[in-house]
Design goal:
By secondary structure, this protein is an alpha/beta fold. The chain contains eleven helices and twelve strands. Helices cover 36% and strands 16% of the residues. The strands form three sheets. It has an eight-stranded parallel beta sheet with strand order 3-4-5-8-9-10-11-12. A two-stranded antiparallel ribbon has the order 1-2. A two-stranded antiparallel sheet has the order 6-7.
Length: 328
């Protein structure tokens, strides 16, 4: 397994991580047995970065990850997040970055994970009501206490990154990045590189869209988040499916799967970028890791840019309410 480093303090992780969110909710039914087997196989294959959050499954995901890694802690880089707040019924009710909440959220995550320290602790979304200096200052206090090793932000703007990094070194920014979500290329990646901040790409397969198995709305199971995502809606889906056909054609030429081509493209964007495709199935894990063996030539990259240029996706990344918390 190749390694990549995040941030000036050089947090070393596998070149591809594993997103664990879907093991608990949003993408179909849970299967804890298969999810745990998938995590174990990922660790066996050299994947070290496991990504979770306190709100995934209302705490279930952290508990699942913590239970699975017992006895293997030394080979795992645990990344978790706080800040998003949900009601008891699961509704998203806001973002909390207040210093007192930082501490209580961290202690709760440590208990669920069953560990003494979190390797990479993210602010999940930026709280507009709390100065970022106050939030990161409280997070930095957790580093001094040994409860957290490295700090990260998720979906933060370049200005916020600069202010946060002035309080404490930020190891990584986690933001959506894929063939159909390339808005980070305008300013955000440049800011990360200027500040020495690594970049963790979530949803690098477009929420599974570039997996090649979605051919119509009927393929998305009931209760799946994608039934409500703008890019999967009836007016956008046919246009976006045309993008998948382009990827499938290019993948055929490269003798790989569409998912592998899409991940290889994200990996090609820079050695400071670590994609974290999510899966709860060992079969898809093997397929995703196969992207590490694919080299894209300059001609390949030009062809991809020609057929899937930035901004080509139809529909927003989130619905209007969700977009309020993007690039805060």
């Amino acid at each position: 397994m190749r390694k990549r480093t995040l941030g000036k303090n050089k947090l070393t992780v596998s070149a591809m991580g594993l997103g664990c969110m879907g093991m608990s909710e949003f993408y179909g039914a849970r299967d804890d047995t298969e999810s745990m087997a998938t995590i174990h196989k990922a660790l066996d294959l050299g994947v070290s970065l496991l990504d979770t959050a306190d709100v995934y499954g209302m705490g279930h995901n952290e508990e699942l990850v913590g239970k699975t890694i017992r006895g293997r802690r030394e080979s795992v880089v645990i990344a978790t997040k706080f800040g998003n707040v949900r009601a008891d019924d699961g509704r998203m009710v806001g973002v909390n970055g207040r210093p007192e909440y930082v501490r209580s959220a961290c202690e709760a995550s440590l208990r669920r994970l069953g560990v003494d320290a979190i390797d990479l602790y993210y602010l999940h979304r930026v709280d507009p009501a709390t100065p970022i200096e106050d939030t990161v200052g409280a997070m930095a206090g957790l580093v001094k206490e040994g409860k957290v090793r490295h700090l990260g932000l998720s979906e933060a703007s370049p200005a916020t990154l600069r202010r946060a990094n002035g309080i404490h070194p930020i190891a990584a920014l986690q933001t959506e990045y894929s063939l159909w979500s390339r808005d980070v290329e305008t300013e955000i990646l440049e800011a990360c590189r200027a500040l020495g901040i690594g970049f963790v790409a979530y949803s690098p397969l477009g929420r599974g869209f570039f997996g090649g198995w979605i051919h119509s709305a009927k393929d998305i199971p009931p209760g799946d988040y994608r039934n409500f995502s703008p890019r999967f809606q009836a007016d956008n889906l046919p246009k976006n499916l045309a993008l998948v056909r382009e990827v499938e054609a290019m993948a055929l030429e490269k003798a790989c799967t569409p998912a592998q081509l899409a991940l290889a493209w994200v990996l090609s964007r820079g050695e400071d970028i670590v994609p974290i495709p999510g899966t709860k199935h060992r079969t898809y894990l093997d397929e995703n890791l196969g992207a590490l063996d694919i080299s894209l030539t300059e001609e390949d990259l030009k062809a991809i840019d020609l057929k899937i240029p930035a901004g080509v996706a139809s529909g927003g990344r989130y619905h209007e309410g969700g977009m309020r918390w993007v690039n805060g």
